[in-house]
Write a structure and sequence with these properties.
Chain A is of the alpha/beta class. Chain A has eleven helices and 14 strands. In chain A, strands 6-7-8-3-9-10 form a six-stranded mixed beta sheet, sandwiched between helices. Classes of the chains: A alpha/beta (about 300), B mainly alpha (about 260). Chains A and B meet through helix 2, strand 6 and helix 3 of A and helix 1 and helix 4 of B. Bound molecules: adenosine-5'-diphosphate (ADP) and magnesium ion (MG).
């Protein structure tokens, strides 16, 4: 059974159509990343799936329950870590966790809080007020609060936005750990390397629809073909090289020419020989397709 | 069904406990809420004191209801502020995505507001007694006065819930309480209506703060309340009902 299934979700705010038929499915136990620029509609999608917002059209099922008509059942099997850390600053870390445990009507909220503190590496800071927490620690507490009561599906809206690299890495580890325990994770992100590092599958939300979907490797195939980057010391050399390479797909930027090779050995050798024969000084690097290029190609902002 | 009610109660208890901790852990809030009315009470009593003709009523006896009103108004400004922070911070979204009784979310704020303001009012009355407030009410008078105060707190709480929900920035979330304080100063709270210029007197005579202040004052002094008691009850219930409806509507609209 699919843990999350969205079929043709639509949502407008006034005249602005944010979701224009979003369709995707997430398998149980998967980490699924929804990638999109700022304002693409990621949060809107998450809010609809978490029953915080009603869609204008389409349907969605979470844990097999309809988000519009079976909200309570949906809420019983999910948890949400919103875009802005949803923790209570006045309370300590432990008090935050116990509060969530009580609201989930657990038999032993204190014991469960203790377990999550240990699991998320927060035991030492458990009784400190949140003002003493770093950004990364707050996010981890946020995640720990989401794991209270063993939800089956966890929604993480931009879980690492605003964190320093160290905080980001520890949150990544926590997310992997959460996934290893069997929970389904839907996360949104603006960072391609985050989707690349964490997700089993990635969906790119653009123009109100899922513009592409697949594993990171599959999406990278949608990027421009492999290219050779040639760097020159002199403007003059570059101009000369351009003249020589007329038969190739070339793009120029600063002192660098990017030439399409499709990864072929013979074409690469030919390009290098032409330059060498002309006595041009240059260095070269092979550019493999990145998720970023795939992303830019898909959202149509040119493969720069 | 029994379980649903049980959960609704336990959720409300947890939510109230949470907001109550917020109140108790911000000492500055407690001090401001109490200090401002107490300072006002002292100023009224010792500075302005004898300069005013209060129709034979002692200054402390006359002013205390107005001080109670001021205390509640500064208290509910914090209710609005706490709610606003919750809405902005995203913790509401977490609560809404959980299987909890929806009523407990606003309920926790409302209950905390009513309880903490009631405690503040008791503190003000005790301080009043220390500096010369001499009520003459019997048990019934005290009970009826307490009823008016509780209804007033509840009405003001729902006003604050509404503004806490709809205000967009933290700087303006308390503005409504200044307007209400303005209303208090143009009522019979701190000066008899008969001493006001005719236009102001006409306004003062027909606004809620006058009804509430007169009603509490006459009840506590053990004097005939006239129409002010009924007027204060009607005002409080009406304001409470209107702002309850507005708040619930504003709250639901956030989910569309
Ligand atoms: N409650 C709302 N009212 C009006 N416009 C909104 C509302 N919520 C979101 N939007 C608009 O919808 C678009 C998508 O927002 P959002 O889903 O938050 O994007 P993302 O999370 O991908 O950055 C944005 O242009 C945003 O301004
Ligand atoms: Mg967002």
């Amino acid at each position: 059974m699919e843990a999350i299934e969205a079929i043709g979700l639509r949502k407008s705010f006034g005249p602005q159509e944010v979701l224009a038929g979003v369709r995707f499915a997430v398998d149980e136990g998967e980490i699924f990343a929804m990638l999109g620029s700022n304002g693409a509609g990621k949060t809107t999608t998450i809010k609809i799936l978490c029953t915080l917002l009603n869609a204008d059209g389409g349907t969605a099922r979470v844990c097999g329950f309809d988000v519009a008509s079976q909200g309570r059942h949906v809420r019983e099997c999910i948890s949400l870590t919103g875009q802005f850390a949803a923790v209570d600053d006045i309370l300590t870390g432990r008090e935050n966790l116990v509060m969530i445990g009580r609201l989930r009507h657990l038999a032993d909220p204190k014991g469960e809080a203790e377990r999550q503190l240990a699991r998320f590496g927060l035991s030492d800071a458990a009784d400190k007020p949140l003002s003493a927490y770093s950004g990364g620690m707050r996010r981890r507490l946020d995640l720990a609060m989401s794991m209270i009561g063993s939800p089956r599906v966890v929604f993480l809206d931009e879980p690492t936005t605003g964190l320093d690299p160290q905080g980001r890495l520890s949150v990544w580890n926590n997310i992997r750990q959460m996934s290893a325990s069997g929970v389904t994770v839907l996360l949104t992100t603006q960072y391609l390397e985050e989707a690349d590092a964490l997700a089993d599958r990635i969906a790119i939300l653009h123009g109100g629809v899922i513009a592409a979907e697949g594993t990171a490797a599959e999406l990278k195939r949608l990027a421009p073909p492999p290219r050779l980057a040639l760097s020159f010391l002199e403007e003059e050399d570059m101009a000369k090289a351009r003249g020589i390479l007329v038969g190739f797909a070339v793009e120029a930027e600063a002192l660098t020419l990017t030439v399409e090779t499709g990864g072929s050995v013979s074409r690469t050798t030919e390009i290098l020989r032409l330059l060498d024969d002309a006595g041009i000084t240059a260095t070269f690097a092979q550019k493999p397709p990145t998720l970023e290029e795939a992303f830019l190609a898909i959202i149509g902002e040119g493969a720069a | 069904m029994k379980k649903i009610i049980q959960y609704a109660i336990s959720d409300t208890v947890v939510m109230t406990g949470r907001v109550m901790k917020q109140v108790l852990r911000s000492l500055d809030t407690i001090i401001t809420v109490l200090l401002m009315p107490v300072a006002l009470l002292l100023a009224m009593n010792y500075v302005i004191g004898g300069a005013m003709d209060l129709g034979g009523v002692a200054t402390a006896d006359y002013m205390l209801p107005g001080i109670i009103i001021m205390c509640v108004l500064s208290g509910v400004a914090y209710t609005a502020y706490r709610l606003h922070v919750d809405v902005q911070k995203g913790i509401f979204e977490r609560f809404h995505s959980m299987p909890i009784a929806k009523s407990s979310i606003l309920g926790g704020h409302v209950l905390t507001s009513v309880v903490t303001n009631a405690v503040s009012v008791i503190a003000i009355v005790l301080i009043g007694l220390l500096i010369g407030f001499r009520p003459a009410a019997g048990a019934v008078g005290w009970l009826l006065a307490a009823l008016v105060v509780l209804l007033f707190i509840t009405a003001m709480t729902w006003i604050s819930v509404f503004f806490g929900l709809i205000t967009k920035s933290v700087e303006t979330v308390g503005v409504f309480s200044y307007l209400l304080i303005g209303l208090t100063f143009t009522s019979s709270s701190f000066a008899p209506v008969s001493s006001m210029p005719p236009a102001l007197a006409a306004f003062a005579r027909h606004q809620p703060m006058t009804a509430v202040a007169d009603s509490i004052r006459l009840l506590l002094l053990g004097e005939p309340v006239g129409s002010s008691f009924a007027a204060s009850i009607v005002w409080c219930v009406a304001i409470g009902a209107v702002f309850w409806a507005l708040s619930v509507n504003a709250y639901r609209r956030q989910q569309r």
